[in-house]
Design brief:
Layout: H1 5-9, H2 14-27, E1 33-34, H3 46-57, H4 70-84, E2 93-96, H5 98-110, E3 116-121, H6 126-133, E4 137-142, H7 153-159, E5 164-170, H8 182-194, E6 198-202, H9 225-230, E7 231-236, E8 249-252, H10 255-268, H11 274-285, H12 289-311, E9 325-329, E10 337-338, E11 341-342, H13 346-357, E12 359-360, E13 362-363, E14 372-376, H14 381-396
Parallel strand pairs: 1-12, 3-4, 3-5, 5-6, 6-7
Antiparallel strand pairs: 2-8, 7-8, 9-14, 10-11, 13-14
Bound molecules: 4'-deoxy-4'-aminopyridoxal-5'-phosphate and glutamic acid (GLU).
Residues 38, 98-100, 124, 170, 174, 202, 204, 236, 238, 244, 249 line the site of 4'-deoxy-4'-aminopyridoxal-5'-phosphate.
């Protein structure tokens, strides 16, 4: 049997793979601490769960319009007006099975074979794979750790080519936690205008911003009418409302692009889950207290980890401004020999950490950087304390 070239090239999502492997270890009785996938440990708030139960009992369990129910599009429009001062009409909104499907739909819609998309490096694992799956070419813009790995104009000018079709931004960022300021967004908007690029703005971590909690989130679509017109915003309820398993994401932007995305979706998955759509209406329209509680808790966790890791002489990390990840620099561990095995990269480090002290982290190689591992602090403080203690005890001997 000859398989498609594409399927043979695609790698499984390392974030999901490491996490499910570690969950299985735990199930089999190992005392494993999972600092892997970015999945909030909070339960989905009760008001949202109740609406889902009601939707089932009311028989709202049939096909819906492929691009989502009007009630949810209305709630999305309201959210953008309330939170972002951005106006979108019904025809500029699509509801999908997670933000991941929104990204897939948009790449399918805008890319022809060989078209390039600039993505930040370190990158979230799925960006390059999604782009390659539709025969596009991911082009990596590698930021400096000193500058929180963010895009700068020289870095972007260095990677632009006649084939560049779009630039992707993700703020707050997975895996670095970096948050772009208004000036930086204005620079990217100007870069996109100068080179006539589309902007794909993944804003899924919007609410996880720990430095300017009372300030409104600035989307690149806020910068100018030009940036508004060339931006597709990717969003979802997975993180904000602890609804990772419900699979609801949404995208907004240019009407023509959204309608093409909807046509693709109508042939691939049809509508996203009907019950989850009604629950998402409640998530966006209902009481937002749970979001504040979760974000405050995450901030405490971040501060705890950053302090402990930087207390070691062998590991280091920057204090991320947003999302719920920390990139730990493991450069000083590279080359060390443990039980006859040399640690050559982040995969070796992660494997030995799991084997020796049963802590699961995501190797930076999954994000394009070998001398880092990513930990997620979307897990309980007890888990974090134990996990960090084990990591520190493990590296102590090598200081
Ligand atoms: N974008 C980023 C940056 C992410 O980290 C994730 C992780 N889940 C997604 C998109 C996809 O989210 P979902 O499909 O759960 O909505
Ligand atoms: N986005 C999360 C992460 O990076 C969840 C897993 C995934 O979808 O990749 O851990």
């Amino acid at each position: 049997m000859i398989f498609s070239k594409k399927s043979e090239k695609v790698l499984p999502s390392i974030t999901l793979e490491v996490t499910s492997g570690a969950k299985q270890m735990k199930k089999d009785g190992a005392d494993t601490i999972i600092l892997g996938a970015g999945e909030p440990d909070f339960n989905t708030p009760e008001n949202i769960r109740n609406i889902a139960i009601k939707a089932i009992n009311d028989g709202l369990t049939k096909y819906t319009p492929a691009s989502g129910i009007d009630e949810l599009k209305l709630a999305v429009a309201k959210k953008f007006k309330r939170d972002n001062d951005l106006i979108y009409s019904n025809s500029q909104i699509i509801i999908s099975t997670g933000a991941k499907q929104c990204l897939w739909n948009v790449f399918e819609t805008i890319l022809n074979p060989g078209d390039e998309v600039i993505i930040p490096k370190p990158y979230w694992v799925s960006y390059p794979e999604l782009i390659r799956l539709v025969d596009g070419v991911p082009v990596f813009a590698f930021g400096d750790e000193e500058n929180d790995f963010k895009y700068t104009r020289p870095i972007l000018e260095d990677v632009i080519s006649s084939k560049t079709k779009a630039i992707l931004i993700n703020t707050p960022n997975n895996p670095t936690g970096a948050v772009y300021g208004k000036d930086e967004l204005a620079m990217i908007a100007d870069f996109a205008r100068t080179h006539d690029l589309m902007i794909i703005s993944d804003e899924i971590y919007e609410k996880f911003n720990y430095e300017n909690e009372n300030e409104k989130y600035t989307s690149i679509a806020n910068i100018s009418s030009d940036s508004y017109n060339r931006t597709i915003i990717i969003q979802g309820v997975s993180k904000t409302y602890s609804m990772t398993g419900w699979r609801i994401g949404y995208a907004v932007g240019n009407e023509k692009i959204i309608s093409l995305m909807a046509s693709i979706q109508s042939h691939t998955t049809s509508n996203p889950n009907s019950i989850a759509q009604y629950a998402a209406v409640e998530a966006l329209n209902g009481d937002q207290t749970s979001v504040k509680i979760m974000v405050n808790e995450f901030k405490n966790r971040r501060d705890y980890i950053v302090e402990r890791i930087n207390d070691t002489n062998i590991l280091s990390c920057k204090k991320p401004k947003g999302a719920f990840y920390i990139m730990i620099n493991i450069s000083k561990m590279l080359g060390k020999v443990i039980d006859g095995h040399t640690i050559n990269n982040s995969i070796d480090f992660s494997n030995i950490l799991l084997e020796k002290v049963k802590v699961a982290v995501i190797p930076g190689d999954g994000f394009g950087v070998s001398n880092y591992v990513r930990i997620s602090y979307a897990t309980s403080m007890d888990n974090i304390k134990e996990g960090v203690k084990r990591i520190i005890n493990f590296v102590k001997d090598y200081e």
